[in-house]
């Protein structure tokens, strides 16, 4: 294999985009649930997060269309918490953001610099949103254990 060819286990740009898109679909669904079950500042924050994830979802869809790839469809439903108390919803929101960072991690290695830029910004934004919901800051956001160790977590939260 030459230095210019991707390793066999590295996804193509389209596969990495699809993975990030699946994470965004789950986040949009999750924030719809959170917003419906919280109030006050939490409701406003959930609305802001929902809007941010919709914007990223649409950008990923557009990037896939530019590559002549059909964007992955959203599932009919995603896993939701059993409780709707404030702490549970905050934890769930932080988990949505963490899974979103996982979804963008491989996109950060895309061959297209504009996709790498999109991934880096999305990783940063999701990390900040997660912190606002009470997540702890890890050394390397996006990696399953926060330390840079490889892993294969399901980003859609099934």
Structural account:
It contains 4 helices and no strands. It has one domain (13-132): Up-down Bundle (Ferritin), CATH 1.20.1260. It has helices spanning 13-36, 40-66, 86-105, 113-132. The protein is mainly alpha-helical and 158 residues long. Mean pLDDT is 89; it is low at 1-7. Helix 3 packs antiparallel against helix 4 (113-132). The radius of gyration is 16 Å and the shape is globular.
Detail the topology: elements first, then pairings.
Layout: H1 13-36, H2 40-66, H3 86-105, H4 113-132
Helix pairs in contact: 1-2, 1-3, 3-4
Defining traits:
mainly alpha, globular, 4 helices, 158 residues, disordered N terminus, Ferritin
How is this structure best summarized?
By secondary structure, this protein is mainly alpha-helical.
Order of helices and strands: HHHH
User: Are there runs of 5+ residues with pLDDT below 50, and where?
Assistant: 1-7
Which CATH architecture?
Answer: Up-down Bundle
The number of helical elements comes to: 4
Share of residues in strands: under 5%
């Amino acid at each position: 294999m030459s230095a210019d060819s991707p390793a066999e286990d590295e996804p193509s740009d389209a596969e990495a985009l699809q993975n990030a898109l699946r994470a965004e679909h789950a986040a949009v669904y999750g924030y719809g649930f959170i917003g419906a079950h919280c109030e006050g500042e939490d409701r406003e924050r959930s609305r802001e997060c929902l809007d941010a994830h919709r914007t990223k979802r649409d950008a990923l869809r557009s990037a896939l269309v530019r590559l002549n790839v059909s964007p992955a469809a959203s599932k009919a439903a995603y896993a939701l918490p059993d409780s709707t108390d404030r702490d549970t919803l905050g934890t769930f929101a932080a988990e949505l953001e963490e899974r979103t960072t996982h979804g963008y991690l491989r996109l950060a290695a895309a061959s297209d610099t504009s996709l790498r830029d999109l991934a880096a910004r999305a990783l940063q934004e999701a990390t900040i949103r997660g912190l606002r919901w009470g997540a702890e800051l890890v050394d390397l956001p996006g990696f399953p254990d926060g330390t840079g160790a490889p892993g294969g977590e399901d980003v859609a939260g099934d």
